[in-house]
Amino acid sequence: MTTKSLRMMGPGITGLIALLATLSVAVAILLDRAGVAIALPAMLLFALCLRFPRQAHLVLLFLIPLSMEVHLASGLGTDLPDESVMWMLCLPVLATVIRSDDSASVTIRHHILFRLLLVQWLWACTTLFFSAYPLLSLKYVLAKAWYILPFAGGAALYLTTRRRLKWAAVVLMTAMVIASAWVMARQALLGFSFEKVNDAVRPLFRNHVNYSALLVCLLPVAVAGAVTSVRYRKVFIAISAFWLVAVFLTYSRGAWLAVPAGLVTALALRYRAIKWMAALSILIIAASILYLASDNRYLDHHPDFNRTIYHADLAGHIEATYRLRDLSTAERFHRWIGGLRMMDGHWLQGHGPNSFYPEYKPYVVSMFRTWVSANREHSTVHNYFLLLLTEQGIPGLLFFVVLLGFMFHAASKMYHGSKDPFTRTLALTLSAMLGMIITLIALSDLIETDKIGGLFYTIAGILACWSVRGERSATGFDVERIAQSIAQQVEREYQHHDGEAR
């Protein structure tokens, strides 16, 4: 079988696997058995990953909005079917990075973003040895590896051209349109009830926070399509409008806040103000913590156990929000205070990955206890930065913050170092998505989920790949493009002389 025929088969196999994935998810929903989602033909899928890893990567992106959380008998959980595809893609991605000398593999081996991801992972491995729950920590370390390799590594290896990036965007958006249309239909049947919004998003999403986070983070992709595409502009505008309405109907304050945050971040990148925005944010956070900590002022803001409740209507929910009397905000304060108190004696190594839930309750302040402090859903601290601090100490938090800084630096280099409209739009889109993710993880722990975690590491891989391309285009010297041009010219000359000889 020729290389050309294999390339022609690739998209067909991708479509077949994507169709089978959609059907298996649909059957799982109808039967109310999330485990059925693993009914993808395993051998065919594994063959796809080995022989057509680029197409398998597209399938993985397609599965992000359509996968469901499954709790196993061992007490651990997984996401199906996308996490099974992550496992299968690790091998071809790792083999390519180690054995290949193409520009994408070299980028992964040497780019600062991938080195920071490796350092962050190695530090998590180190803190495993200090963990009070080594098995839970080991699961975290392994999961982190099979998130970084297929998402960040896969993006850097396979999303290297405009055409591939556009296909990835279309695939991801198509799946999210399917998921959001399904959720909206269920919400309509429930009368768009604020109280029943979590029922409407299950089983595809754990809760309305996970759903709204992925939805709002894909909104810049639809807007970018509306700006850059002439042929399909009306389609992208319709999707953008639909998703804006859907974001409002998620009733998630974090997602509502993420919309202006993404816009402000893109403008800050455009006008070279990212550093000032980051410095101001850090200064405000540090000042707030110092103010509340001095003389134990935070104790003056404890909730009223009897008045801090869950409001079943949107108006009451919003009013309680700005009065700081709603249940979710009060419970966040409860966990944040417990998380900060956990750091006493654990500033360097933390308590170990995945250890917050079994460790935090002895450290909480009873005055901040709320109706949901029993925490039956086993959720964590509701702030990813604080989660890293409590579980992996100051180094773990610093490595992640530095990673974010270099991601914005790469986006800035892409935008200001290129005159190509596509590259500049891509940089603005990725920076807006990154700003949204930072806003969301300040209120929830979403990087460890397949929805936002997959998106975050994909952004890192694209930034690594395309920032290097921007450097080459800025100098006017792209070795890979020149070599490809020479090879094509040689092939044409050979065919010409071969034809004359005949």
Topology readout:
Blueprint: H1 3-31, H2 42-51, H3 53-63, E1 68-71, E2 77-80, H4 82-99, H5 103-110, H6 112-128, H7 134-158, H8 162-189, H9 197-201, H10 208-228, H11 233-248, H12 253-270, H13 274-293, H14 314-322, H15 327-342, H16 356-360, H17 384-416, H18 421-441, H19 450-475, H20 479-501
The outline comes out as globular
Order of helices and strands: HHHEEHHHHHHHHHHHHHHHHH
Using only CA atoms, what is the Rg?
A: 24 Å
What is the helix content? over 70%
Q: SS-based structural class?
A: mainly alpha
> Any idea how many domains?
3
Widest beta sheet: strand line-up: 1-2
Please give the largest β-sheet: 2 strands, antiparallel
Instruction: Please count the beta strands (DSSP E, at least 2 residues each).
Output: 2
Distance between the termini: 26 Å
